[in-house]
Amino acid sequence: MRRFENPTVAVVGATGAVGRTMQAILAERDYPVGGLRLLASERSAGAVVETPWGSVKIEDLATADPTGIDVALFSAGGGRSREFAPRFVDAGATIVDNSSAFRMDPEVPLVVADVNDEAIETHRGIVANPNCTTMALMMAAGPLHEVAGIDRMVASSYQATGGSGQQGMETLERQIEWFRGKREAMQHGGWEDPGGDLYQRPIAYNVLPMAGAITDEGYTDEEWKLVYETRKILEAPAIKVEPTCVRVPTMVGHGIAATMFFDRPMPLEEALEILADAPGTELWPDSHVPTPLDSAGIDDVLVGRVRETVGDRGGISLWVVGDNLRKGAALNAVQLAELLLER
Amino acid sequence: MRRFENPTVAVVGATGAVGRTMQAILAERDYPVGGLRLLASERSAGAVVETPWGSVKIEDLATADPTGIDVALFSAGGGRSREFAPRFVDAGATIVDNSSAFRMDPEVPLVVADVNDEAIETHRGIVANPNCTTMALMMAAGPLHEVAGIDRMVASSYQATGGSGQQGMETLERQIEWFRGKREAMQHGGWEDPGGDLYQRPIAYNVLPMAGAITDEGYTDEEWKLVYETRKILEAPAIKVEPTCVRVPTMVGHGIAATMFFDRPMPLEEALEILADAPGTELWPDSHVPTPLDSAGIDDVLVGRVRETVGDRGGISLWVVGDNLRKGAALNAVQLAELLLER
Q1: What's the number of domains chain A is made of?
Q2: Which of A181, B113, B145, B315 has the least C-beta neighbours within 10 A?
Q3: A268 vs B contacts (CB less than 8 Å)
Q4: What is the ipTM of this complex?
Q5: CB contact under 8 A, B207 and A246
Q6: Which of B313, B339, B134 shows the shortest CA–CA distance to B239?
């Protein structure tokens, strides 16, 4: 594997929420950026951005020459990743791709930093960043799996509108205003639909039990990611996952309530010890249970409500919540870029 | 069992959200009220309320004489039920109690109308109305259980602030105002706690993965209700339930994401047929998935996202959502009062 000293780093999708957070996290973590290139769509090209590494003019992804880029962090959607990532690889770059384009490609490692770091060794130019909901769950499930092997799991998500980007949060804000002073209608019916084409149903003062779009067997793409990405990350193709992905009216922070059973009974005390030691996580007490608002803007994934199962004994139920823009996307991408330096 | 022709009906807790909804539903359903008595705490006593059955002066529960009451709908909290329900029974009344006081009493039937109506026959003066979250879930789980027997189930709730009464909805409204214009802090951290002592953590723009208060083994009272009430209602003491109860920033309508496995594989088509025929429910398509806002103010419990499990095969995952004040409380109580007439 090639080593970089002071790599030239490109952020592709530099003007989006994740792309901007990637730049902030590169600076926060003192990533040894030798040079920064910012790429986006034609619309943003030409604008000049002040960065900790000087003024950078945004380049048009469609026409930019990738020569000289060592590490490229892609977060510009699956279509652009599929089109441009191979070209960047051909030009000598290593890609950390935040889209779902390559996640299930058997030749592309899918890596949660602090969970399956070693998988990155096998990359051939592209490393995939997992789905944000799966990522948060893996931070708790990974360490437990390593010790006792997860056999089956049911996971229900509480996903923030920020997971749909800036537009998701704006939709929530707009709809909150729409319903202002209309409690009677919300309580007794007769409300009018606030409209908008981002979500199928209203999201303010509501929950939408269908995050993503239905693909096969009545499951959404978000739900299938929980199934397949979990198996790939944990290198356990037989893990059984029953997912339900639900959008909730929060800004940032994807929560997951999960119940998991292992290849052997998992005593509560053991689970608590494992989770207390899990890197990149904080175990919070029931007296101050972790919520999406607590997770916003921080790097650690928060874990709480850890308890032994009460129906079938020997399993563990728990709650995890993580900032979907940070560990769920930009932070993990930068952590993978760090692993590319170290290894 | 005694029959009533035109019973004298008492609503105990007449000024609360559930008590007021009980009166509205008695009228909507043309319950043959021979006379109405309204009881509440000393604070409300003396006020005169206009009802479809004339002006009624609110009586002080502590000093009222229950003589002459045929059916009493109690929704004034567990403490008052424990204190006063037995006195009302001694005076000849039959009680439908919405509190948790008697739900697990082996001599008190726990009845979801349209699910286990026949259980009401065994009452000795008190019939218990189930917990609102359990009630919504039972409307879908009951008919499936009757056909194939539920073996195990994982249920995660999305419970409205209205489940905490008027104060819950007011807390949500106040906190929504508190966070108005503070998206930056919600996104990146640095928000200030809006305070309030109803919920342990903020509920606006947040979810609180701990509805109720922790009792045994790290589970909340709300979660234990899902475990024990499910078993009692379905008369299946071996059903294994893994519950997680989460409060979400909605006004009305408790949602539950559930995954259930049966004594035999349950084909999706069979589940859909059973649920399409289930009384008191509506099966909604994925193209217009049912949400809490849809459930507000209506009697039916809404069912959606019905799909076969994909980890372990042969199970069913689904979503249910019901108005916690109506089917979850007042409607079922009135339905039980109707059963008391019929049987």
Answers
A1: 2
A2: A181
A3: 218
A4: 0.96
A5: no
A6: B134
